[in-house]
Amino acid sequence: GEWDIKWAENSPDLAHLQRAAAQLQSTDTPVAFPTETVYGLGADATRSSAVRGIFQAKQRPTDNPLIVHVYSIQQLRGLLRPTPGNDPIPAIYRPLIERFWPGPLTIILPKPTDSVLAPEVTAGLGTFGARMPRSLLALVLIKLAGVPLAAPSANVSTRPSPTAAEHVKDDLDGRIEIVIDGGPCEVGVESTVVDGLTYPPSILRPGGVSIDQLRQCPGWEDVVVGYKNAPENGSQPRAPGMKYRHYSPKAPVILYEASTGQPTVDAILEYTGEGKRIGIIRTHSWPLACGLPVRLWDINLGSGTESVARGLFSALRELDKNGVDVIFVEGIDDTDGNIATAVMNRLRKAAQITA
Ligand code: TXA
Ligand code: MG
């Protein structure tokens, strides 16, 4: 159904948001804001120079399209080709919107030939990705700005996505002026990107909405995976290659699949040598590795899949700050169709096991 956001006129939060909205309207400097997934770096999606400001600030390759963030269904309809007497939102998406918006789901939509969206947003594609975030600060900011906001994650390209305002500052200080601080993100991995414009519908990026949740919706029972996820050869941990970087801390990441078991002392020393600084990110079952002739930073993300997702990017960043030489990560079982799929997808990229 339709709903709207109202606020108390004298709230200090509102004054900050109004200042941010004014900057979005009158300059080409993007504004960082919280969402329930990760922090976004937003700009007016209808203005080319503003959108170019995003690519510049985060040094993002210009052939990677951005997600358009809206605060209402009405605002989204305004971005679609009018279909007199009918809802312009394709019917396939209605059950998803009903169930998951506002929330961590991005849908791919046809872009009208006379679209108001700046061409830079879609990197030359005939479609655009849209989502309605669940963070109230994000929704109010979009409403105050009066325009849809194009926003990628607010990190420097190749780095782990930011899940706290401090992470944004670490990456973008000096390049942007405003970070709206909404505290740590609730989900911790990015939105699920789905394409329902082709049959069968597909998942282009696993994320905060799981494949199981999608399959429960009418028309999405047969959704297929449209990205590469499985490790290339069995479950052997692999040394990082040099070609592709994404979600990457400075230190190389050595990922152990859930089925592989924990690294032996010999394996760790083979990668590092004595006296090195080693980071370990544990989840379910690795006992603390002790007695190693190394300096150890040990982060335990707990055993709940959701808490692993919430803490993952932050843990990678924290180990970087400690200047570790290598990071060993305990993978989680991702065969269940839950948010572990998104966690392992990001970890395999961080470890450069898949593109
Ligand atoms: O949770 C999120 O989605 C966060 C927050 C800030 O909303 N945003 C985010 O944006 O992760 P970014 O730019 O880091 O990732 C956007 C993803 C990319 O994988 C991009 O290729 C895909 O969405 N995408 C955007 N538009 C697309 C389109 N028209 N067709 C296919 N994929 C698209
Ligand atoms: Mg990103």
UniProtKB/TrEMBL annotation:
ATP binds at T37, R60, N64, T127, S153, S161, R205, Y247. InterPro entries: DHBP_synth_RibB-like_a/b_dom, Sua5-like_dom, Sua5/YwlC_C, Sua5_C, T(6)A37_SUA5, TC-AMP_synthase_SUA5. The keyword Ribonucleoprotein does not apply. It comes from Lepidopterella palustris CBS 459.81. Its main location: cytoplasm. Gene3D superfamilies: DHBP synthase (3.90.870.10), Threonylcarbamoyl-AMP synthase, C-terminal domain (3.40.50.11030). Pfam families: Sua5_C, Sua5_yciO_yrdC. L-threonine binds at H69, R131, A151, S191. This is Threonylcarbamoyl-AMP synthase. GO terms for cellular component: cytoplasm. One of its GO terms (biological process) is tRNA threonylcarbamoyladenosine modification. It is an enzyme of class 2 (transferase). Belongs to the SUA5 family.
